[in-house]
Amino acid sequence: MSKLVIEERQVVIPGDTLAEGMDFLPGKGAFREGDNIISSRLGITNVSGRIVNVNALSGRYIPRRDDVVIGYVKDMSYSSWFVDVGCAYEASLSMKEATADFIERGSSLSDYFGIGEIILTRISNVTKEGNIDLTMKAPGLRKLHGGKIIEITPSKIPRVVGKQGSMISLIKDKTGCSIFAGQNGRIWIRGANPEAEKLATEAIQLINDKAHTSGLTERVGAFLEQHALEMQK
Questions:
Q1: Which of 19, 61, 74, 135 has the most CB atoms around its CB within 10 Å?
Q2: Could you tell me whether strands 132-135 and 142-144 are parallel, antiparallel, or unpaired per DSSP bridges?
Q3: Is the full-model pTM beyond 0.85?
Q4: Nearest 5 degrees, angle CA 28-CA 29-CA 34?
Q5: Rounded to whole angstroms, what are the CA distances from 202 to 17, 206, 216, 227?
Q6: Is residue 61 part of a domain?
Q7: Which domain holds residue 181?
Q8: Could you tell me which residue, 213 or 68, shows the higher pLDDT?
Q9: pLDDT at residue 198 in the model
Q10: Taking a C-beta distance cutoff of 8 angstroms, is the pair 6, 18 a contact?
């Protein structure tokens, strides 16, 4: 009889048994050994249907196709921009993927995205050689103005977002901030004032530090309630 040996969001180490039997399949950070699924790294368990994953507790961002990420425009050529998305290789955004507008010959690319600007973009392709292609052609993708960027462990982003966006919605509601969370661990926050941005930042850092614990939504909610009241005094 197949069974899970671990609980959801449990911290495991390499060699830990995650599941017994053939009804479960190994996902990220796991492998099969006989009838058992074994962890291959230090991380937090995540079970999706029959697939058992171990998300790394820390580590550099590994880009994947269709990830929505926050990037810094670092350089440009005559036909594309080069963007830092927080991994070992720079990503490229071509003119045809940057805008639906017709760009006339000789136009300056800086009229669209300048060096140092921040964009919310999507990874459209990752090659075996590590080349990363970006696109801005999807709903919600945009240049990000003002606000601040914080960085957390990329594997903790699902906890910041929460099930069906519940956690990030809680933070937005309690702080009044606009927030975008990139799957590369970068989070953009813009509030009505520095105090609101600081509160949102502290709530996100709490999630980053305590992502492996249960009851996190209630803990973050209580934290926000307490500090929101202090801000109103």
A1: 19
A2: unpaired
A3: no
A4: 100
A5: 35, 6, 14, 10
A6: no
A7: 148-232
A8: 68
A9: 96
A10: yes
